Here is the input.
Amino acid sequence: MVMRRPVDRCWWVRACWFVMICVSLTGFTHASQAKAVPPVAAAALQKLLPSIDGWTSGVARVDLVEISPDAKYSYASVTFTKADLRVKLTLADTGSSADILTALASMVVTMPEDYAGQVGALAIKRGQIGGSPAVEAWDAQKSAGEISVVVGGRFVATVEASKVDSVATLRAILDKVDLKALAALK
Here is the structure.
């Protein structure tokens, strides 16, 4: 019988361990200093979900998630399909709650700016998209990945897929989101 450490089970677990280490080393960003406000209605986020030529859009899901009276977020998400490809796009409002922001976009919040590295098969790049902090995580072996952007220290736009042709597909779908309109929501 071969005993494996829990971090050997999958790339995502290794990435989460890496993020937890980064959190302990870097602490929270400026978002932790902002005062939390009530998140916008999920319907407002739903209006910003784009239509994408050549893709079939599933039914949008919208909800307000209340973890505690001081920690809640709203979100709208939709899954796009094209042949065998499935990509999920989620827009969320953390209400500037540092805890919720860290939960929804932990790699963006905890990774140093301009970080680029490899965790197992997962390539991670921290940078900017549309002037906002972002992280791109891509596993070429599994054709799986995620791109997350934190807009205005409050909103999170995430596009993810477990089986997609390339990270360029994720970028193209995220490019359809109007990040300026997202930032303008109040």
User: Anything to note?
Assistant: The chain has one domain: 6-184. Residues 6-184 form a domain with the Protein Transport Mog1p; Chain A fold (CATH 3.40.1000). Confidence is low (pLDDT under 50) at residues 1-32.
